[in-house]
Amino acid sequence: MSTDLAATDFATVAAESLALVPGDVILDEIVAARAPWSAIVAAGDVLTIVDLCGNQAVDTLFYGGADHTVRYSAAVTIAMQGNIFLSAGSVLRDADGAAMMTIVGDEVGNHDTIGGACSQESNTLRYGHQTKHQHACVENFIGEGARWGLTKRDMVSNVNFYMNVPVDPDGALGIVDGLSAPGKRLALRADIDTLVLVSNCPQINNPCNGFDPTPVRMIVTRPVGAGSK
Ligand SMILES: [Zn+2]
């Protein structure tokens, strides 16, 4: 693969050459700007998320594919790795400490666990009442989660892939310009069958999407030799 692909090329280049972990391509979908997305990634399969245009926050929740009461726990994940940021080697864990997915490739190096998902409520509090009509991640999660029988009651703290949320010495959180760039990739290996629920963040009031929400690409590969599921 050429190293000087234009941003638009990442949407059309063959999935086989973009997947961070090679294998048979099980799924290859573009998530439109501002849109939700979901799929079950089978144990052993690898999800590569491609930030097609750069600086795009990908808000993500994880549930057991067969048992939705198994769900990602930010608190347990942070405590067990002793780090609030995610990168290669990070294990995303459920409330009992069991591995759900493991980051096996990361071209950015820093992903947020504590910034949460934007909502109409947080937008109006932070940016003013005129933002109340704006689409937000919580609405994406509720709409897409409904396809799997999930409701607002099932929502937990989410991961923000590609979102840059530094913590200042005084404990204050920032949401600042991203570290990602067009074509940057991240790969997650499923340790159990995992329902991955995504909001391709529609936020336009802070730099998390460079003030311009853009599409991302989801590629699931099954490493050769993993057998049929
Ligand atoms: Zn958002």
Keywords summarizing the entry:
single chain; 229 residues; alpha+beta; six-stranded antiparallel sheet; four-stranded antiparallel sheet; 13% helix; globular; binds zinc ion
Indicate the topology.
Layout: H1 15-18, E1 24-31, E2 36-41, E3 46-51, E4 58-64, H2 74-81, E5 91-93, E6 99-106, H3 120-127, H4 137-146, E7 159-161, E8 184-190, E9 194-200, E10 216-222
The protein binds zinc ion.
User: How many strand segments?
Assistant: 10
User: Strand count, sense and closure of the main sheet?
Assistant: 6 strands, antiparallel
What spatial order of strands do you see in the largest sheet? Answer: 1-10-3-8-6-5
Instruction: Provide the domain count.
Output: 1
Strand proportion: 25-35%
SS field, number of helical segments = 4
Concise account of the structure shown:
13% of the residues lie in helices and 27% in strands.
Report on the structure:
- With 229 residues, the chain is an alpha+beta fold.
- The protein has one domain.
- The protein contains four helices and ten strands, in the order αββββαββααββββ.
- It has helices spanning 15-18, 74-81, 120-127, 137-146, and strands spanning 24-31, 36-41, 46-51, 58-64, 91-93, 99-106, 159-161, 184-190, 194-200, 216-222.
- The strands form two sheets. Strands 1-10-3-8-6-5 form a six-stranded antiparallel beta sheet. The protein has a four-stranded antiparallel beta sheet with strand order 2-9-4-7, with helices on one face.
- Strand 5 and strand 6 form a beta hairpin.
- The longest helix has 10 residues, at 137-146.
- It binds zinc ion.
- Residues 59, 117-118, 136-137, 201, 203 line the site of zinc ion.
- Zinc ion binds next to loops.
